[in-house]
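for the recovery benchmark. tokens below, seq after
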């Protein structure tokens, strides 16, 4: 979808070649795709502190209440789990995963995998916040670069420890540079999507081969990662194809339900989770081959993390 020029905010007129189904600058001057409602209310300084959170039943949103020191008023900010903040799932867990990988002493390629996914999350946050072409590149190009790292990890998982294969690195580097150069000259989003899809297809074929013929006990993790990612891809397509219908439906849905129809935000969540699980799968394959003992633990009893015990099995 081409960017809409009907509203402009702090970042000026959108210059990106893409826009999404979430309404832009609905009431916010600073964030393009981020539901931000601002109102002023008189208040008494003795009653409220400088900052407080309050949840209000209004389309499932969370409102931040803060005091402007220059005027005796309160501002309500409606923070919706839209296209911007949904990127947190691609930022915080991968940073934790990178730290855990460093602690476990696993190879640098897996640290780069986690940080690459986090870079995609940061770039996507900036893109959806500004809808500027430069920020769009900050989102889309790291998708290519990080997925190339994923491909290297998965296709080199049965090599000797600490070994570095120069040929696949050179091949993936040439691919990344070529995609970058072509995309900078030919600003066609479909080209980027096809190139990214080709890399994902390489990951899917390699993953399915490994869990079918080498480590069948890893099938649940592999298929969960793939299924979650494909669900996000499905919702991404629904959001693109039926955008006008979804926007109209949101106006008639009960409070708390409309936010659930922000399918591009769900694309971020499911593809972020699917990519994170893929890195865990790649780590498990590698550590098992190296005869380490990978142990899946759940952070706060919910979020999966992989811990590698340093002792090798006999």
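predicted aa per position
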């Amino acid at each position: 979808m081409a960017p809409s020029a009907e509203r402009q905010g702090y970042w000026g007129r959108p210059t990106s070649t893409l826009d999404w189904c979430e309404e832009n600058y609905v009431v916010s001057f600073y964030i393009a795709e981020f539901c931000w409602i601002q109102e002023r209310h008189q208040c008494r300084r003795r009653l409220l502190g400088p900052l407080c959170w309050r949840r209000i039943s209004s389309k499932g949103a969370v409102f931040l209440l803060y005091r402007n020191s220059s005027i005796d008023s309160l501002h309500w900010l409606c923070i919706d789990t839209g296209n911007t903040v949904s990127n947190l799932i691609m930022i915080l867990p991968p940073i934790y995963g990178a730290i855990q990988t460093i602690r476990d002493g696993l190879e640098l390629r897996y640290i780069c995998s986690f940080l690459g996914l986090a870079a995609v999350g940061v770039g996507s946050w900036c893109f959806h916040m500004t809808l500027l072409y430069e920020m769009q590149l900050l989102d889309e190009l790291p998708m290519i670069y990080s997925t190339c790292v994923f491909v290297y990890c998965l296709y080199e998982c049965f090599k000797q420890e600490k070994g570095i294969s120069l040929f696949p690195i050179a091949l993936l580097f040439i691919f990344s540079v070529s995609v970058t150069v072509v995309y900078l000259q030919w600003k066609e989003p479909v080209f980027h999507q096809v190139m990214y899809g080709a890399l994902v297809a390489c990951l899917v074929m390699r993953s399915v081969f490994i869990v079918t013929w080498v480590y069948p006990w890893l099938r649940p993790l592999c298929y969960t990662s793939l299924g979650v990612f494909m669900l996000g891809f499905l919702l991404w397509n629904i959001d693109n194809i039926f955008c006008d219908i979804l926007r109209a439906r949101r106006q008639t849905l009960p409070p708390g339900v409309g936010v659930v129809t922000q399918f591009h935000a769900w694309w971020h969540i499911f593809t972020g989770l699917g990519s994170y699980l893929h890195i865990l799968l790649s780590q498990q394959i590698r550590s098992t081959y190296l005869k380490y003992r990978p142990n899946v633990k759940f952070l706060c009893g919910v979020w999966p993390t992989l811990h590698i015990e340093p002792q090798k099995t006999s």
